Amino acid sequence: MAGPRGQRSSVGTESRHVLALEREAVGLVDRMPELLMEAARIASTVAQGIHGRRRAGPGETFWQFRQYQAGENATLVDWRRSASSDHLFIREREWEAAHTLYLWPDISPSMNFQSHIAPVSKRDRGLVLTLAAAELLVRGGERVALLAQTSPTANRNAATRIAETIVANAESDLARSGLPPKAALGRFSGLILISDFLTPTREIRERLEGFAGHGVAGHMVQVIDPAEETLPYYGRTEFLSPSGEQRWVADRVEALRPQYRARFEAHRAELAEMAKRFGWSFLTHHTDRSASEPLLSLLMRLQGSASGYKWMSASSDVTERAS
């Protein structure tokens, strides 16, 4: 009797798991249009606080006239502009060199968490940040792609294309692993990783070393629900694993708070040290704060990682950590 009961239990658990995956996929499909609109709104808000990093160089767009300097090639002179002045002028074009940035939003079960003190789940906020970053980067003339899933493009519909690909692959093992997929990226490309990064640091390090070893400029954005950091619970509390298949009960959860917070901070310190060793940037964002904060900080870091990025903050008061 024990054997058959165990078998039925196993089948029942598997069926519930499949149904949970189906509900999650349908929920993502239903939410994506709303997330796209939210991303467009955030991108427009942030765009008002940044301006292009402009300089002279090869390109098609007119930038400015400047006076001719002795020794320069006479073929550079704009004779029509010079005819109306006592000086010779050269027409300069704006420097244009598109970079390729690969985006990866973590949509594993861990990212579904949302506490009573946060207005959105980590998954939704991560997706909004990903899509808004794609929108802003394309506006700046860069090429963007979903890591290991789409080809780089500078098309204005890039964010929509990324959203469609995320939905189409939401149930794949790749999407649910909690680690960015392996991919061969160009030496001067950029990589934006958006996750809670709660996977063991050893696994994260093993996966990211391949990118860092090839000279990829990486940017890690840790999206955290404030309750995950502070453990603001009291009394007897039940905790469930992201899959919902495991549970653990604490009789006086507040007694665990100091040890929990120390371990959480130690994990984050390891992530920050890892990023530093790779020469990457690392910032933390809490889901009870505005999505524009980490996005603006991220764009500032992109500008600082290479002189060619066209985005630059109009203000200097954004802190190193967008909490």
How would you sum up this structure in a few lines?
With 323 residues, this protein is α/β, with parallel strands linked by helices. Helix content is 42%, strand content 17%. It is built from nine helices and eleven strands.
What does the model show?
The chain is an alpha/beta fold. The protein is 42% helix and 17% strand. It has 9 helices and 11 strands. Helix 3 links the parallel strand 4 (100-105) and strand 5. It starts with a helix and ends in a 10-residue tail after the last strand. The model is unreliable at 1-11, 51-60 and 306-323 (pLDDT under 50).
Q: What keywords describe this structure?
A:
323 residues, alpha/beta, two-stranded antiparallel sheet, 42% helix, 17% strand, disordered N terminus, disordered C terminus
Q: Describe the largest sheet.
A: 5 strands, parallel
Tell me the Rg in angstroms. 24 Å
Mean pLDDT, all residues: 81
Determine the structural class based on helices, strands and strand pairing: alpha/beta
Helical residues, percent:
40-55%
Q: Label the overall shape.
A: elongated
Give the uncertain stretches in residue-range form.
1-11, 51-60, 306-323
Question: How many strand units?
Answer: 11
Read across the widest sheet, the strand sequence of neighbours is: 5-4-6-7-10
What is the beta-strand fraction?
15-25%
Give me the strand/helix succession.
HEEHEEHEHHEHEHEEHEHE
Number of DSSP helical runs: 9
Distance between the termini: 55 Å
Question: What's the arrangement of secondary structure elements?
Answer:
Elements: H1 2-47, E1 50-52, E2 62-67, H2 79-82, E3 89-93, E4 100-105, H3 122-139, E5 143-146, H4 158-168, H5 173-176, E6 190-195, H6 201-212, E7 217-224, H7 226-230, E8 237-240, E9 247-250, H8 257-278, E10 281-286, H9 292-305, E11 311-313
Parallel strand pairs: 4-5, 4-6, 6-7, 7-10
Antiparallel strand pairs: 1-11, 2-3, 8-9
Helix pairs in contact: 1-3, 1-4, 3-4, 6-8
